[in-house]
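Fold it.
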Amino acid sequence: MIGLGTYAFFWQHSERAPAPLSLAGAFAETRALGVDLFQICDYAPLDRMSDAEAREAARAARDLGLTIELGTKGIEPEHLDRYLALADIFDARLVRSMVYSPTSRPTPAQARAHLASALPAYAAAGVTLALETYEQIATTDLARLVTDVRSEAGSDRLGICLDPANVVARLELPSQCIAAAADLVANVHVKDFEFARQDGWVGFTYSGAAMGAGLHDYGALLASVRPRARGLNEVVEHWLPWQGDATATITLERDWTRQTLDFLRSTHEPDV
């Protein structure tokens, strides 16, 4: 299923917007674009919501016929327990997280213990925990962690959220990331990316691009991972630089979302 995430509404949610978009507003925009899935990912207000407020947000999503996924950072058991409770409120079947958070950097042994502790409850609830590929951990190491915990826990409810754009900062090629993670992917983040010379020709800026205009070989990802044949969701997000003012930035953000949706809807997994 194709979905939108909060990162597709990054500037519309931000305080720079003349009228910042609420979560319910993002739900409505998602439905208006003919999309049935929304991933609430790294959305700070969610962490401050009471259960009653979360139930109200979940009701708004259900009223629009949206499927919800959740996203956070960190793998401490107490934190993952909280997100499992939120998953129950939102009827979410997937929680995306990252091994490191702003306040925690577990060792490999600690990470394995944290995940092994949390996974049985996720498995019992029918919720998949998907750890995102990113620059702080080599994808081969992340894949090994996921494989080891799955084997120890006897459950495949732990997987990888594949985002090949993130790993470039550790000089890992997106193609290497895709190859290392392919068999363990549970969720895909969709955005294009590019390098551009900085003003004065000193160095480069690595940032987002309109889908299909950058460096992302999405056809290769489809061929390797086969997300649609495997029933994996593809969630649209953006790395859109500030365009100088709110109107221009938000207009381009909306354009990129429509362009990415059109791109995804026009693509087909190759027969293999």
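The chain is about 45% helix and 20% strand.
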